[in-house]
Amino acid sequence: MATLQMPKSPVPLDTIPISPDGGSGTTEMNGEPEKMPNEQIVTVFDDPEHFNVKHPLANNWTLWFTKPPSGKGDNWNELLKEVISFDSVEDFWGIYNNITSTSQLALKSDYHLFKTGVRPEWEDPQNKHGGKWAYQFKEKKAVDIDHAWLDVMLGAIGETLEDEDDGEVMGVVVNVRKGFYRIGLWTRTVGKPIPGGGEGSHAGGKGRSTEEGKAILMKIGKNFKKTLQLKDSEQVEFSGHTDSAHAGSTRAKAKFVA
């Protein structure tokens, strides 16, 4: 992987460079990068700043940010801001290296990384039948939250949190609170088929039994736990968005644990 160069101070989000300098040396031909005549291919793994070929991701992703509320009258839609979208390894690092690290965010801030076209909200049509795996780090000083959040983001965009045909992972989120950090992984379903199914062979649990759906969620939960490098005695919990909404909290009773 490219060497991380964290900024000394936060860079305004509207000035984030999508590609480092020197990233325009290719043309696109049928979706594949084409090397210019007499030009040597240089990837981000060869030179993290002056590369000329990008590595596409399997999906497009969008980074969102929730700024801290200024008072009780704040509207969620006003606090939630879409930051930027990307679809390559190089673009991810260009963004990551130029935003404020999680450990430096103000209290009540959140980062959300979701597949493009999916809003990080329970009410989004692609989320409303789903839920999330989550783990709460209660000892903030004992965890390297920047490393943990980076690993989870890489797991999401690298498609290692689920198998290719699972179609469950919608996005990941990190919450910064006074007494804890919390990282969550949102799924399309709660293990049960969605009424009417959905796009794709398995989207919405189409063609799966409830037992198969639960098994897939449990596998994702274990992958999530492994990515967070938790001990066997530590548990990640899964809850449905509907249950959380009814409970009036993100801490609804867990459906599953891993």
UniProtKB/TrEMBL annotation:
Listed SUPFAM superfamilies: eIF4e-like
Top-rank lineage group of the source organism: Eukaryota
Keywords: Initiation factor, Protein biosynthesis, RNA-binding, Translation regulation
UniProt region (Disordered), positions on chain: 1-34, 239-258
MF GO annotations: RNA 7-methylguanosine cap binding; translation initiation factor activity
UniProt xrefs under InterPro entries: TIF_eIF4e-like (IPR023398), TIF_eIF_4E (IPR001040), TIF_eIF_4E_CS (IPR019770)
Gene3D superfamilies associated with the record: RNA Cap, Translation Initiation Factor Eif4e (3.30.760.10)
A Gene Ontology term for the protein's cellular component: eukaryotic translation initiation factor 4F complex
PANTHER family: EUKARYOTIC TRANSLATION INITIATION FACTOR 4E RELATED (PTHR11960), EUKARYOTIC TRANSLATION INITIATION FACTOR 4E1-RELATED (PTHR11960:SF8)
Family the UniProt entry places it in: Belongs to the eukaryotic initiation factor 4E family.
Subunit structure: eIF4F is a multi-subunit complex, the composition of which varies with external and internal environmental conditions. It is composed of at least eIF4A, eIF4E and eIF4G. eIF4E is also known to interact with other partners.
Function: Recognizes and binds the 7-methylguanosine-containing mRNA cap during an early step in the initiation of protein synthesis and facilitates ribosome binding by inducing the unwinding of the mRNAs secondary structures.
Protein name: Eukaryotic translation initiation factor 4E
Protein source organism: Viridothelium virens (Speckled blister lichen)
